Amino acid sequence: MADNPKKRKEGAEGAPASKRSRFSKPQHNIHSAAMSTAYPSGEIDTKKFMRAHENEIKSMENAMRAAKKGLARRAFQEVPRDMRRRTASHNPQRVPKRIKRRAKVEALEDNTPISKGKSGSGIGKGKTQWLRREGIEKSKRAKEKRGQKRTTKDDNAVTNQPETREQASKERSKHPAAPKPKSKRLVALATPDTPPSRFRRRQVHKTWLPTHIWHTKRARMTLPKEPLWRFAIPLAPVAKAYRHTHRAATLRGAVAWDMSYMATIGLEGAEASILGLLKGLHFAAEDEEDPWQARGRGKKWVDGMRAWDGWIYEREGKLPSKIAEVTVIWCTREALSSNKRKLFIRVHPSAFLQLWNEVIRISKVQKPAVTVEDLRFEIGSIELVGPSAAETLCSVLHPSPPKEQSTESPGSIWGKLATVTNPGVLPASSLLGFCISDPRLRDPPKSITLRDDAASQSQLIEILADWPVDRTQTAPAIFKRDSRLAAGSALSSQKSINSRKSAAIPGKYPDARPTDPEIPILTYVSRKHRSWTVILPWKCVMPVWRGILRYPVSSGGNPRFGCLKERRQVGFEQSKPCFPFDFPGTDAGWGWELQMRVERKTEWTKRPKGKRVEWATIDLGGGRKGEIGDPWACDWERLLPISGLGEKSSTEETSSSRTPFRQLSSKDAFGLTAGRAAFKDHLALPHLFTVKITMIGRGTPATCARIYRLPSSNPELRGKWMSLLSSLASTHGRPSAKRQRTNNRDAPEHIQRRHLAQNLLNPTDLADDMLKAGDDAYPLAPGEEDLIGFATTGNYNLAEGQPTAIANVALHRLLGAAGGALLPRTSRDPQTTHDGRSSMADDRAADDPDEGVESAVMLSPDALADLTQQLLEDTVANIIHSTALSCHRAEKLLRMQSAATRAESLALSSVEPQSQAKGYTNQPSIPTADTGAAKYENGRVFLRGNPLKTTPEITCPHCKLPRLMHPIMGKGMQNPDLTKEYCMLYPWVQRSGHDVYGNPFPTDMAKSKKERELIKQQQKNAEKESVGTPGSQDTDMAGGEAQGKEINKLNTGGKPASYIPWHTCPSCKRSLLITRFAQHLEKCLGISGRQSSRNAMAKLTGQNGNGTGTGMANTPLGSRMGTPAPGSQDNVSLPKSKAKGISPIKRTADEDDEGDNDTPERKKKKKSSYVKKADREKAGKEGGPLKIKMKNIVQSKDVDRKARDGSEKPDGKRGRDDATEPDGAPRPKKLKLSMNKVENGSAPPSAEPLSAQEAR
């Protein structure tokens, strides 16, 4: 049994009670060693000493760091900002475990009261603990009652059991069993797997998403007893995320959603039967492309290479109503001869039950039959939006190694799509199906290196253009139930994953094993939503989700997670209506509206009276008070058409979950407003269609905002709204600004600059000019008879930088006051014109082409060809007209300016100085001049006639010289008048191999001096040989050879192709080629070369010298060998030798003092003292006198100045320029002697002091 340090040990009998040891823990015991052991030889081993105290030093540094950090920040400040809570600063229980103890200590030191939690499960928590105790007791009593009933039932069954079979048969004959009613065989809906026991009671009436626990810590979820579409769905993040989501979805990063609540319906059967089922549900009936055609995208869709997004309708009905917008994905044919196909239909959960019933009903009439399967809890999905979505997916989803490697397989191509930032560059709705390995084996994920070189970009372009996946795509394993279940059941536990990661090499991922599961996935892109969607098994969503959210994006940060609110925000910023929120004409959208009415009213009721809007007292003007209809709802019931009895029709339908409206596409609706009937009986049922609203005045539209048309029964009020609209459009409205910018594009440049200057100098003030709602002069709101729709989504659009809204408008209200017939083209309502512009907003279809959604009018081929031809002709004519007009106007302006310049020059030149003028007076003379094109008078110029006719040439306004009208070489050249002087601004030259200034392009590298001289000599020889022959003419040069030479004087270019400019060195004033200038500058300034390395070595050795005089510490700059010690040159001669380390041309310190200027100067070449070998031999043979050549060294510095400088140096140090003795006398100099070779050998040279030589 381990000793308990907190328990005191019992002392001996009769002994006093022993105290508890103060340092009882082993880590507090201080170990010591004997002196002889620590210092065996009386010396300290530095290496062992540092190693022994290494941990102590580290502990001390950590303690100092922790103390400094602890004084600066408190415990709750260590929590990341996105994980902080409002009450975490005074509750240590609400911080992470790693700093919980520190928070408690700080609370005790500050005397902060620690509040106990009042929430949680169990008895004894909160003020309502008696309710929990009562509920537990009630459940126990109910359990006991059920047990008693079970025991009594078993006892009765035992007592009433017949003894024999005959008695049992008699009993059955007396009481025959009632016939069982025939039950219809229905396809059973899927049920989720049984959750763990600790979470089972929380999922009785709802289902958790695979990432539910991850989201509960970071987002606001639906209420436990109020699930949404029978799922616990995250509604919005806890932290603010509106702007962050916009940036991540559009600028940098990515946003991910767990879309596993999307329902999936599986179909399996003959291809013809499945096609018949889809056609019976009118799938993609309003799409521009025909999905049933046997070519193009339709054929690829049926072959399983593309996905298709479209609306699906109810089967029956003259005007079938829309159910939902679905995505249909075919499985690739497993064999060409096989006729059995599989298909997925992905639909929003709000419309799942309605679509399920329709699919079951129509599948039974197909021959052969189609098998329908509910795959809601077998298949999950993750959706990503943003520029880094492809990078994140390609980094986290690693394809498993295939058995047969192919460079064109989907798994091989998948990694090359990481640099794609816009999914629109991929083929529309393209599919990629393959298997991946467990992402947890590569956790944490590492950021990949994105290759942006030309080779990788060209490879990506080739892949996108060819898209080899269409040839290599096989049947995805996600369509097979066995593969889906095997992937979910074979996933390793997190504990085993951690074991494999810890056993791997540090910094490396664990190696793959043959037993690792393969997760089947199917990825497709959507151009409409600009998103990537990954379909995978339900149980494999969480591993992939963690990898995606932990990936470090190359642009910085991690991908953000989104909730239901962010999904609507992204669609709103893309100006696309979101299902089912913006489609009240469907049953799913109608149900959402009914649910939101209750929530809005409940939220309004919870607010205090001082902080909520009293809708009942709002003054609408004209004696009207209160909002029209239900203020917390889009009151669509008020837009229903009036029946013949004067009552609202279909009152029973409005109270049920079925919508009384039909959802109409915006394309058909605007066709009706333009006078084209899209279908018959369009007013038999009320229809709604979506529009986009852009505010041209102040204010931000909100949900449930009312939309009115211009008053139809009050002409005076209609006129006020029209005047307000015209004033807004002319001064402040955004559409008018766009229109003004469009009109200014065709205006001349000086007009555009004038408008720009006016806008900058005179900014308009909306607060002073525009009327505000609530002013006395502001028009009143129209009546209920002019109400045409409601805004379903409204807010400030960050993508467009202005408030926008998505709304629905009633068709019969838009077409007429009574909803009777189409409006004629000449009498449409001014508020709802053909482009949908209202009085205070810009309304257009939400799927307008300007907003990025394809929309067009169906035309016949002949009409389309005529329209295209007219558009092209008009476009070409406009381009030609604009070009010709701009050229004409520019030329005319130049001629006008030239005429004014000539007149001004003539007037100023004719004015004489006042002192020289005859009849000098105090009044200054007024300069005047009159030419045929202009008249100059007192600083003002008056033009005469058309300057294009009166001014033949252009004069430069700066230099007052005429300009050349045509180039002197190349295309369009003409011979200029060489007797005139022209402006240096020449026309541009168009000549092959030359730039616009006439200079030829470089064709080869710089030639050496010999090559240039050789070329010049060849040219001179050619000129001598061609004497007497006619000069050759350059076809690109105006005139002949003589004329060309004169013209070359005007040309700014004219340099040969091999010409290389020169540059002057700022230090030595030498002119060098620019190709050699950098190398010269380094040597001239001492940046590189031998001298720079010597200076650096001298500095280093000067710092590290030993001070003995034998090293390099006293070496002067410029020396190549060590300086001798002081006094070593007095009586000792140094032989001149070529041994290693001794320079044969060693210079003394005095030679370095000859000049103070840093500018290098050329020194005269001194006569060498070397004696030729022949002369030495000759002298040796003849026995003549020995010749001695003396090389004297001249003193270069003043002795007084050196003495003065030497006195300032510190003692004990020898100066570099010190050449004097302490008494002021010059220091003796060395002499270099060279002697002839004697008979028996060569005598070594000797060096003696100067005084000794003079004595001799």
Automatic annotation (TrEMBL):
Residue intervals of the POPLD domain: 531-636
One Pfam family here: Sgf11
Domain POP1 C-terminal: start-end pairs: 688-815
GO MF annotation terms: zinc ion binding
Region entry Disordered, spans: 1-45, 75-200, 822-852, 907-932, 1005-1040, 1099-1256
Compositional bias segments (type: Basic and acidic residues): 826-847, 1006-1026, 1172-1181, 1197-1219
An example Gene Ontology CC term for this record: SAGA-type complex
Domain called Pop1 N-terminal: residue spans: 49-269
Name of the protein in its database record: SAGA-associated factor 11
One GO term of the biological process aspect: tRNA 5'-leader removal
Subcellular location: Nucleus
Metal-binding recorded as keyword: yes
Keyword tags: Activator, Chromatin regulator, Metal-binding, Nucleus, Transcription, Transcription regulation, tRNA processing, Zinc, Zinc-finger
Family, per entry: Belongs to the SGF11 family.
Sequence ranges of Polar residues compositional bias: 26-39, 907-928
Record's compositionally biased regions (Basic residues): 140-150, 172-185
